[in-house]
C-alpha cells in the first residue's frame, strides 16, 4: 500500500489527512496549531493520523503541505531585515509606491501608510542602466556595487533583494550583482527581480522581490526544520509545499521563492473543494472556508478556480499568481463587542485564536465569540476535534450575557442569535465580492462549505446567496489538507513583451509561448516528472492600448493556424471578458503585455470513496434529540452521527450532523441528502432536486 499525507496549518487548528491511494480511505487528525513552531503541531497530527490508521510513518510516500509561515511573517511584521539594491535614481521606489489609499471617504486623511519592507536607509543605488529594449545604456560599475554591498553588510541586513530598472528585458546586470553579493555577503540569501518576477512595472516588481527576500530566511528555516523532523520521525517521503495558485512545488523551490506561498493555506481549500464538487457532479460553485480566525471564499467555474495576478496579505500587495480568494475576519473565534459610541453589535475582525480561544474552551478566554454563540444556541456538541476539546456551555453563556445586557436584548439566546446573524452577513458580503462584483449570479452556483466552522453556517449562507445545493464535504474540517494531498506539481514561466496586436503574428506568439513552456517543463523535469506526463496551460495578459491594467485571457494553441486565427481568437476573448467585467468594450487596439506558460504534473490517482447505499430514512444514524434556539424560538433537533449515514439518506431540519472535525446545522424547512460520494447536499425541502442522491 502507498499513502499520501495532506497537512494544512491554520491560525487555530492543524489538520492532517492520510489517504490510502489504493482504496481512497482516509484517516484524519486535528490538533491545535503551535504558532511558536508550526512543525510541532504538524508532527503531533501526523503521529495521531498514523496511529488511527495503524500505519507506520515510514510507509508515507509523500507529504503535501499548505503553510501560513510566509503569510504570518508578513502579517506579524516578523520578516527579515531586507537590503534593496536598485538603479541610480530609483532609491525611493518603495516610498513612492502607487497613489492608492484604501478605505472610504477621507481615508487619505486617517490612513497610516505602512512602512516599506525594505527601509530607505537599507536601500542603495548602483550605477549601471539597462534600456527598455534590453540594451545596455550604462555599463555596471562593479566597484560601486561592491562598496554599496559592504554598506548594507555593515547595517546588518538579513536578506538582499536586487531590482534594477528594466531588468525583465535583460537580467545580466542583476545576475552580476548577485554574483558580487555572494562574495561580499556570503551568508545572506539573495532575491533577484529578474528571477522572482520578470515582468513590467518597476514598483510591482520591486515590492514582490523585497517581499520574497523578507520571508525567505524564515520559510527556509521552517522547511529545513520540518524536513529534518519528518526524517527523524521515520517519514522518508518527499515533502512538497502548496503554492498560492493551488499547485505544488518541491520544498527546495518553495524555500527559494516563498512569495508564491503567501496564499498557500486558502489555495488548498479551493483545490479540495474542487475535488469534492467534481465527485458530487457540480462543476460551478462558490467555496466557503470558515475556520477559527477568518473566512476565505472563492469562485470556481468549470472545475477551474479563478486565478488572479495579485496576492494581497494585510497591507501588502504583490504580483504573484494566486487563486482569487477573498478573506474576511470572520471565524469561530471572532469576538463580538458593542462599541460605546454606536451601541451597535459588531463581530470581528479581532479573534480569540487558539490561545486563549473562545470562553467555551475553558482555557482562559472570557470574551464572547462566534463559537460561544453557537454553543449557547445548542448548535455545537460538548466535544470538538474527536474529544481533544471539551466545551463549557455555562462559560459560553457567561461570555455572551454582557452582549445581551449592552444591547437590551431579552435573552442570552437572542444575543447569541444576533452574533450569528451578523457574522453570516459579513461572510455573505465576501461571497458577493467573488460573485456579483465579478459579474456572476450566485444562484447559478452551488456552495461548498468547509472548515471547522463552515458547515454550522452553511445553510444560512445558502439562504442568503440562493446558491443550492449547499455541499458539505466528508471531513469538512480537514478539506484544506485534502486539497493539499490531491493536487499536482506545478510551475510557470513568464515574460513581458509589450506588443500591439498589429505587431503580432500567430507564429511569433506561438514561438514565445513554446519557449516559455520549455522553461516551465524543465522545472518539473528536475522534480522527476516525465515530459509526457506534463500538461501545459497558456495565458496572456491583455489590455486596450493606453489602459493601465491588464486582464488575463487563456490561450488555445489549437486555434493558431499561421494566418492570424489565433490572434483573432484572443481579441474576441479579451473583448468578451472586458464586457463581462465592465459592461463595455473600446474601439482601441488590443495589446499584449505578458505571456505565461504553466506546466502541470499529473494529478494523483486517489480512489474516490463511495458510501453504502441506503433508503431515505436516516434513523440508523439518529443518536438523540436536543433543544436548539432557531428563528427566535426553541425547537427540538435530531442529532445524527455522520459516520453512520448511508447514500440516499435524507436528514430533514432542524437537525445537527456531528463528526470528528466539524458539525453541520440543517435549518427548518431544509433537508440534507447524502450523496454516494459522502457529501451532504442541503436544499430547501420544496427544491426540485431535494431528493437527489
From TrEMBL:
<feature type="domain" description="Acetophenone carboxylase-like C-terminal">
    <location>
        <begin position="507"/>
        <end position="673"/>
    </location>
</feature>
<dbReference type="Pfam" id="PF19278">
    <property type="entry name" value="Hydant_A_C"/>
</dbReference>
<feature type="domain" description="Hydantoinase A/oxoprolinase">
    <location>
        <begin position="205"/>
        <end position="491"/>
    </location>
</feature>
<dbReference type="Pfam" id="PF05378">
    <property type="entry name" value="Hydant_A_N"/>
</dbReference>
<dbReference type="Pfam" id="PF01968">
    <property type="entry name" value="Hydantoinase_A"/>
</dbReference>
<dbReference type="InterPro" id="IPR045079">
    <property type="entry name" value="Oxoprolinase-like"/>
</dbReference>
<feature type="domain" description="Hydantoinase/oxoprolinase N-terminal">
    <location>
        <begin position="4"/>
        <end position="184"/>
    </location>
</feature>
<feature type="region of interest" description="Disordered">
    <location>
        <begin position="597"/>
        <end position="619"/>
    </location>
</feature>
<dbReference type="InterPro" id="IPR049517">
    <property type="entry name" value="ACX-like_C"/>
</dbReference>
<dbReference type="InterPro" id="IPR002821">
    <property type="entry name" value="Hydantoinase_A"/>
</dbReference>
<dbReference type="InterPro" id="IPR008040">
    <property type="entry name" value="Hydant_A_N"/>
</dbReference>
<dbReference type="InterPro" id="IPR043129">
    <property type="entry name" value="ATPase_NBD"/>
</dbReference>
<protein>
    <submittedName>
        <fullName>N-methylhydantoinase A</fullName>
    </submittedName>
</protein>
